[in-house]
Amino acid sequence: MTMQEHEAVALDTAAVPSEAAIARPLGLWLDRRRLLIGAAVIAGLMAPLVVANFTIFQLTMVMIYGLAILGLNLLTGFNGQFSLGHSAFYGIGAYTAAILMSGSAELSYYWTLPCAGAVCFVVGILLGLPALRLQGLYLALATFALAVALPQLLKSHVLEGLTGGVQGIVIDKPDPPLGLPINADQWLYYFTLAVLLVMFAAAAGLVRSRTGRAIMAIRDHPIAASAMGINTARYKTLTFGVSALYTGVAGALGAIVVQFVAPDSFSFLLSVNFLVGLIVGGIGSIPGSLFGGVFVLFVPNIAEKVSTGLSGAVYGIILLLLIFLMPSGAAGFVRRTAAWLARLRHTSTRGGA
Amino acid sequence: MEQLLQQVMAGLATGAIYATMALAVVMVYQAIDHLNFAQGELATFSTFLAWQMIEWGWSYWAAFAMTVAISFVIGIAIDRVLFRPVRNAPILSQLVAFIALFSILNSSDGEIWNFTIKTFPTPFGTKPLFGSGLISTHQAGMVAVTLVMLALLYLFFRGSRLGLAMRAAAANPEAARLVGIRVGWMIALGWGLSTAIGAVAGMLIAPIVFLDPNMMLGVLLYGFAGAVLGGLSSPGGAVFGGFAVGIIENLAGTFIPFVGQELKLTVALIVIVAVLMVRPAGIFGQVAVSRV
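The joint structure predicted for all components is written out below.
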């Protein structure tokens, strides 16, 4: 009996330090994550001061695509609804901004963002309602219909007065305010960075909130979620709206930065790009969305440099390699590597003691 | 009335293209439980192979048979090499593998056979059927081949042990494995079969839309729409859906004012989504019931 008790006690005492040893690196890791975010923000602030204007433009586009992919991520990654229609939300956001800036309204560029967000939120809710009845591939087709419809609607002669038809709309590049000693590209970069930080922080907050847990519960098990008293229909529609809002704001930023909108920029292929970015970055990972933006912007260029004729094949091979190496995206890869490092450190300190 | 009939016939003619593709789409879906987004590009690649053989002086039917055989092998190889390693990855990662395959094939087609538009022969001739001018002999032949393929597939899946094993592997892989079905090879076989059907579809469609690397892009999207409209679990429904998409598109373009040519695809898609609202699993699809 004493033997058994001894053993039990020994097991207990053995368990306690090892738990603490696991918990501490986790706490360290969390702090390190804050440090990493801080370092990334500082690097982001410094970047436009040291690189060429075209690179600044590219980095701005990375952030914009990252934001659009974050929108898709909220819907697909956190709520489990599939969409091939996010090019349409991006396009609607872009056109809202362009029309408000160029037409008789002549709104300032920064006011177009909330407008684009609001318009897309409403469209997203409207699309979210039929989406309630559809699942998986059927939902994919419904959202695909929106993606195909948008360029055609924008080109149609019915709306030509507003959208400029096939020609599209050209808009002016905004100047930096208050006579800041930076050029317009740098200013747009900082403007985008600020919007990005606010919206990423908001998304992180949303995901951690009660609402966010409800959204994820619906993804993990819709029936169990509704049994727990979650109003599935309301949250799914709401997520559609918020997701569209994010992508719409990204579209508005994109229009301002590119200074031009035309129907064919918002084709179905853009949706496919967002989807690829989402998956490569990491489904259900907020920082992963930004990596998705990097991929969407730079990898086609790299493929083009490797071989002009076979650029599509090179792109495909890079994509396949990434999927083989990181089946759960860049975020999953980082998470696994971090866990592996923590385990390694854990065993080495144990061995030393 | 005359115009209505004419538009319906024209819709049937284009619908036949979509129906052929929709059938191929549903076959893959039955076999591997995924939509194959690279299906169109695989079909284009196969059609290029056939074109190359005909260029080398092969007879049409020799090239046809050889292409179907090669496509079958290519399908199996793609599954073994590319998709088996990612079978346990999240479903969206597999989607990326499809997109990658799409990109690789499209780009290679362009590099090997360049982007100039090529004509592709038809064994059925291109005269108007019964001299009516509504539908050509080729289009009629295409409809006939599609229906024959549908019948053969029905017999294969309903009547043969192998077909039953493939259905079991798709419907419930674990249970199928327990009764001794080699699920992995059934999936590979499904790939081979669907690639072969895609090759037939490609060779039938190429005389109408002409052969170039991007030939299948639009057709595949319409094929998806038709398959989803008819119901992904029903090959007959897919053929019906393909024809329906062709007819709806034509009628909307002709009879609804302000729609015209530019918005007819949009209208067709809206009609499809509206139908799905009422029947979320497609017109002939069975609602999947799962135990919680």
